[in-house]
Structure formats: C-alpha cells, structure tokens
Amino acid sequence: MLYVVATPIGNRGDISQRAVDVLRGVDVIAAEDTRHSRPLLAHLGIATPLIALHEHNERRLAPRLLRRLEAGESVALISDAGTPLISDPGYPLVERARGAAITVVPVPGPCALVCALSASGLPSERFVFEGFLPAKGPARRARLGELGGERRTLIFYESSHRIGAMLADLREGFGPGRGAVVARELTKKFETIRGGSLAELCEWIASAEEHRRGEFVVLVRGAEPAAGEDLGEQERVLGILLETLGPREAATLAARITGGRRNPLYRRALELRGEAGEGVC
Ligand code: SAM
After folding, report:
1. Ligand 1 centre from 272 Cα, in Å?
2. Residues with CB under 6 A from ligand 1
3. Residue partners of 216: CB distance under 8 A and separation at least 6
4. What is the 140 CA–ligand 1 centroid distance (Å)?
5. pLDDT computed for residue 278 by the predictor
6. How many CB atoms lie within 10 A of CB 183?
C-alpha cells in the first residue's frame, strides 16, 4: 500500500493518531526532505527508515518505489509540511502507483489552503486553488489577467520575499477595493489572519517588517457580476448551445450573444458538462 500522509503545517499537535500509526507501521517513509522530517519523527518516537523523494528526483525514484510496492512493501509519502502533492512532490509516484493498481490510501490532515479558507470569512462553498503564482512579474500579471472575472473565492500560496509584490499585483489586477484575506503563519505562534480590501492589505503588509515574515496564504473574494450582466440569461443560452456544441464553441457563442465574458462562460460550460478542472481557454 502507498499511504499519502499529511503532517503539521507548524503546530506539531496537529498530527493525527492515524498518521502516527501509519508512519510507525510502514516499511519506508518517502520524505521530501529527510533532514526536515527527522526531528518530527524523532519527537513522535518513530524510527521507520527514510528515503528522500523530492521534486528533483521523484521521476527517477518513482519506478524504484513502485517495484518495492509491487513486491509487497508498504510506503508512506510525506512532505515538509501539510498534505503531499498540494504544491508539494508526490504526483508522479501516486499516478504510477494507481496506474499499477497499487492501493493508495490518503491519511488526511493539515493543509494550509483549507485551514486558511475555514477561518477567512470568505465564501467557502466554491473556491479555486491557484497554488503559487509565477515568480516573474509579467507572467504573474498575465495569470491574474486570466483570473480577474473568476467568481469563486481564489486561494494562493506565497512566500515571505514576494508577498509585498504579489499583493500589489493583486491590487492592480483585481482593483483596490476587492476584498481579501492574508493568512500568515497558520497554527504557529505568530498566526495572523487579516482581512480588508487589497489596498488596505498592501498598506498593512508594507507597514512593518514582521508582517512580511513567515508563510502566507492569500485569499481573494470572487468577482461580483458586472453591472447589467444577466447570469440567468447567460446560463440559459449556454445550456441551449451545449446541447449541440462543445464547451469552447458554446462559451464563445454565448459570450457573443449575451455580451458576457468568455472565460467564465467556458468554466461554467465545463462545470455543466462535468468536465471542470480542465482550465480556461
Ligand atoms: N503541502 C502544503 C499544504 O498542504 O498546504 C503546502 C506546501 S507549499 C510548498 C508551502 C506553502 O504553503 C507556503 O509557501 C505557504 O504559502 C503555504 N503554507 C504552508 N504552511 C503555512 C502556514 N503555516 N501558514 C500559512 N501558509 C502556509
């Protein structure tokens, strides 16, 4: 069996009993950084052998681990913090394991995006996780341009050295009045969950060096429908077009007929077709 095990994102008390039992019982733990995970495992009294599986070796190592799994060994996959595969290594191994009919067992636990969303006060029924935005300014702004009309709550990860520039780009891309939340150092001593407009949050982040320290989740309220945008009508037209056309063509035509925006219509078309998650055109 391959176990995908979530570990704490700061507070060691957040490890689950089941995670401890699994980590103690498997033949080997594949850890993103063995030096990082050793202190946690020692604290938990776990002496299971470790092997490093990180973004630079995971494609090479996955077949080897797969052979061990096929030979009947059990493997636990952990990352430095939170849930593996969520902006963390592990996808090639899980993909291959499932392809080889190995049982993959999730052992759920901390995940920064869910933790932040649950306390953000922003709509949580529907949301999109964008992970890290591109590091370079032009690429980042281009991505934000694609996301400007997104109605669902948007969730991003960001590091301390880019948080100021990232918030400034969000303010330019989405407008200074758009509501957002900065969740910093979750589950740790200096946990801060600050809400406000993007303009206010830019000021706040610039106002003290300690505000820029640590790890960040940034959540942005989804876009309001533009004035005069009749969603009911757009959806009705989209529904009719989807009876005979693919999502791309239906969205393009629906946008032309109703004056709506194509990307949100395309996303909606994918949802209606049950194909959400394919990205926008
Ligand atoms: N796999 C992890 C998860 O389940 O959330 C995420 C790993 S990703 C490499 C690391 C990023 O997650 C950080 O740069 C930050 O954006 C976010 N993050 C992780 N721990 C956090 C925390 N305690 N508080 C706020 N953000 C955190």
Report:
1. 32
2. 9-10, 79, 81-83, 86-88, 111-113, 157-159, 183-188, 215-217
3. 157, 158, 159, 160, 163, 182, 183, 184
4. 19
5. 42
6. 24
Predicted local confidence at residue 242, as pLDDT: 93
Q: Per DSSP, which regions of the chain are E strands?
A: 2-5, 28-31, 50-52, 75-78, 104-107, 127-132, 153-158, 179-184, 192-197, 216-220
Euclidean distance between CA atoms 76 and 4, whole angstroms:
6
Q: To test the ligand 1 pocket, which listed residue (4, 55, 87) has its Cβ within 8 A of the most ligand atoms?
A: 87
d(CA 98, CA 96): 5
Residues 6+ apart with CB under 8 A from 75: 1, 2, 3, 26, 27, 28, 29, 30, 65, 68, 69
Q: What is the pLDDT of residues 130-185, one digit of tens each?
A: 999 999 989 999 999 999 899 999 999 999 999 999 999 999 999 999 999 999 99
